[in-house]
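Hey,

Quick one before I head out. I ran the complex with magnesium ion overnight. Inputs first:
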Amino acid sequence: MTLYTVAEPEFLRLVLPNAEMEVLGEGFRWLEGPVWFADTKTLLFSDIPNNRVMRWCEGGISVFSVRSDFANGHARDLQGRLISCLHGTGSITRRELNGSTTVLAESYEGKRLNSPNDVVVKSDGSIWFTDPPYGINTDYEGGKRVAELPANVYRLEPVSGKLDVVVGDLSGPNGLCFSPDERLIYISESGLQFEPYPVQHIKAFELKGDDKSVQSGKVFHKVEPGFSDGLKADESGNIWSSAGDGVHCISPQGKLLGKILVGATVSNLTFGGRNHSRLFICAGTKLLAIYTNTRGVVWP
Ligand code: MG
């Protein structure tokens, strides 16, 4: 039986009591960056310390890319192309339809990016990503080197290559997602690595009228236990966040609605499957999935 914690009665409408938590794969080192391909009914996800990207579809799991440059977060652009955050090269890349790779960003004002962590594509085609130093603080998820830039959140215009800081120098910006109407962007701050009391919470930033920049943010929610690494919005604007004990569902007002307990630390998640109602969960060394009674915001 799947274990839920119900904090607010409305959570009962969002989950399915008879849906089992399924283990789709295990034996990985540390999973991250799931992205759903509705056209091929395929999930790609990163096994970061193993330096590879995996591919799941009904029937099995295979290796999508060996020597992935320690890829972490993924998204798809408006043409369906795969956008990747690479720790190893400190870059944002796009996989073209012919299989070649285009580097979209690797530096800002002449300095190398740190280790892009997670990425989301807005409906105008702009690419928003976080750039904490987690992938250059250790050799485990990339390679040690000195950070040249603060831990910023960037907006990239892929056609012109214009790169702008939208939020400067957060304490470890990590996952990010837009609200369904794209008036808000939620950003997980997971703090400074190795600090005894890191700053860890989800912040919400309202977009300005230009759709390219944000107002000053405010704390939206603090996940406990653990912290929010990756997060996604559902069609009602609820935020589904990774946590130390599973997946937490948070209302648009920032209130905990309930938890799906998985008995492991969850790093990231995404909606996929039929009607985007299946939640794919990267839980440490395992890939899990569970059907819900909500739907993720459909990729444009
Ligand atoms: Mg992350």
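The first helix runs from residue 134 to 137.

Talk tomorrow,
K.
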